[in-house]
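Mods, move this if it's the wrong board.
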Amino acid sequence: MELETRPPAAQPELTRYVALLRAINVGGHTVKMDHLRSLFQEIGFQNVETFIASGNVIFEAPAGDARAFEERIEAYLYASLGYKVATFIRTPDEISEIASYRPFPAEETAAESAVVYVAFLPVEPGEQAEQRLLALRTPVDDFHVHKREVYWLCRIRMSDSSISGGLLEKTVGLPATMRNTSTVKKLAAKYGQQ
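Not the wrong board. Structure tokens:
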């Protein structure tokens, strides 16, 4: 009697995601990157990498709903670390698009002290939230909203600005995590469009 042989079950195709975490290695919360990678592996994600020690985690998983991944990561990190870590998922294509988006004229961003920050949000802010944010504009700070990101042009050192990440969150009424465009461009160069 011959044994019936079956081909091995096909493994689901993996999709790459970028998780941008808030409250990692700031405000007294220190998490070593090898520990953070191991937590993502415990969740069940594969090919986990971290990029710069500020809460950028790249992982692969079968294609799924980004919001469901965010909730799963937030719940696991809260249980493991003991504090809330807001999580914002973007695809490599989205990271590339954000890195190449130009919300302000080049001559304004080329100034020596000018830095553009990107605040990643869970959803697109509504029109009223956008209007409240634009009302914060000053000769030093300018804002632009595009999709689920807020772009902040700060013409002086961020620490000298009257605007902060907390004020930005309060104004739009949504949690956010911030990265400067230099970091976003580096992420896009390494992990961008697949």
